[in-house]
Amino acid sequence: MVKKFVCLGLLLTVLFGCSYSVYSNAYPHLKKIAVRAFENRSNQFDLGDKVLNRLSESFQNDGRLKLVTQQPDCTLEGTIQSFDENIYSFDSGNNVQDYMLRLTCSVTFTDLIENSVIYENKNLVLTEPYAVSASSTAKSKSKEEATDELISQLFKTIVQNSLETW
Questions:
Q1: Which of 3, 18, 82, 99 is the most buried (most CB within 10 A)?
Q2: How many CB atoms neighbour CB 34 within 10 A?
Q3: What one-character-per-residue DSSP string does 95-129 give?
Q4: How far apart are CA 119 and CA 58, in angstroms?
Q5: Residue 126 near residue 103 (C-beta atoms within 8 A)
Q6: What is the Cα–Cα distance from 91 to 69, expressed in whole angstroms?
């Protein structure tokens, strides 16, 4: 019985103790990225900083590209064109239940080694609902959590259309 617990403990240590990435990079010559500050044309004055910080953090955590400020192999830059908030749903008493956040960006992912644009979208639109009432369909997500989710979606969209392109 003790041997089973020791073996199980050893197996769990091996499985959870090792960090192995299964991420792929369609451009193996790209090793370093510079994430440039997005121009912010929205009415949310701090959104540009949030986008820059979260995208930088996401690339760092992802691990496929090293985040640098000098001599990058590729760059990510863009413009926040708008950040809108609209009513998404009402409850039975005709009170606002949910809002929908809408982030519209222009993004460009450029390979500086081969001097080519890998991914560009001049009108990337991402949406995420958030709740204002307990009976919400947005799973009680706050506006801040919805904003964070939009930036996560932005990162995933950029990576899927650049590094994971086959």
A1: 99
A2: 20
A3: -EEEEEEEEEEEEEEEETTTTEEEEEEEEEEEEEE
A4: 18
A5: yes
A6: 48
**Is 39 within 8 Å of 74 (Cβ atoms)?**
no
Fill in the amino acid letter for 112. L
Residue 154 to residues 76, 100, 107, Cα–Cα distance (Å): 12, 16, 9
Query: How many Å from the N-terminal Cα to the C-terminal Cα in the chain?
Result: 49
Please report the pLDDT score of residue 7 as a whole number.
42
Other residues' Cβ atoms within 10 Å of the Cβ of residue 3: 7
Closest Cα partner for 76 from 85, 64, 86, 91?
64
141 in Cβ contact with 129 (< 8 Å): yes
| 78-117: pLDDT as tens digits | 999 999 999 888 777 888 888 899 999 999 999 999 999 9
Q: How far is CA 70 from CA 43, 53, 54, 73, 121, in A?
A: 31, 17, 19, 10, 25
**CATH code for residues 24-161:** 3.30.160.150
